[in-house]
Amino acid sequence: MVVEEVGSYLVAQGLAVLGQDLFLHVLPDKPDEAASLINYLGDEPDYIQEERKVDVENPRLQLAVRSMRPEVCRLRAEKMYQSLMQVRNQTLNGTRYLWVRPVDSPSMIGRDENGRFLTTVNFRITKELTSV
């Protein structure tokens, strides 16, 4: 759910179009200009005082941006990075997000097998448990 909720946020901010230049859970081979959000192993959840009930989750998320031009790749990643850092005590698609904190800064990690530049940045998210 976190990937979908954060993806919807980036779309609402005018930074991407889902399925055209923003992809969830995968970075497909095409188009050349693309971004993806991928959830990966986060931190342990927080529990309510003495209860055995999870209150807050701490997932992690990676944003990867790809482009044929390094300056476009870096700028797009930076804009999304700046936007996500603004999420504080906000509800995204019905889930309360306490904050989205970067673990690192956007970093160019090189080129893929097709010569396209890749920039990634990782986030630690603190959010209330998503209702099922």
Break the fold down into its secondary structure elements and pairings.
Blueprint: H1 2-12, E1 22-24, E2 34-47, E3 54-67, H2 70-84, E4 88-92, E5 95-102, E6 107-111, E7 117-128
Parallel strand pairs: 1-2
Antiparallel strand pairs: 2-3, 3-7, 4-5, 5-7, 6-7
Q: What is this entry, summarized?
A:
This protein is α+β, with helices and mostly antiparallel strands and 132 residues long. 20% of the residues lie in helices and 46% in strands.
What percent of residues are in strands? over 45%
**SSE ordering:** HEEEHEEEE
| Gross geometry | elongated
Low-confidence stretches: none
Number of strands: 7
Structure annotation, total helices: 2
Q: What is the helix fraction of residues, given as a range?
A: 10-25%
CATH architectural arrangement: 2-Layer Sandwich
Mean pLDDT equals 93
Radius of gyration, CA atoms, in whole angstroms: 15 Å
* Terminus-to-terminus distance: 10 Å
Write down the CATH class. Answer: Alpha Beta
CATH topology (level 3) name: STM4215-like
Q: Main β-sheet: number of strands, strand sense, barrel status?
A: 7 strands, mixed
Describe this structure in words.
This protein is of the alpha+beta class. The protein has a single domain, classed as STM4215-like. Helix content is 20%, strand content 46%. It has helices at 2-12, 70-84, and strands at residues 22-24, 34-47, 54-67, 88-92, 95-102, 107-111, 117-128. Strands 1, 2, 3, 4, 5, 6 and 7 form a seven-stranded mixed beta sheet that branches. The protein starts with a helix and ends with a strand. The model has no long low-confidence stretch (mean pLDDT 93).
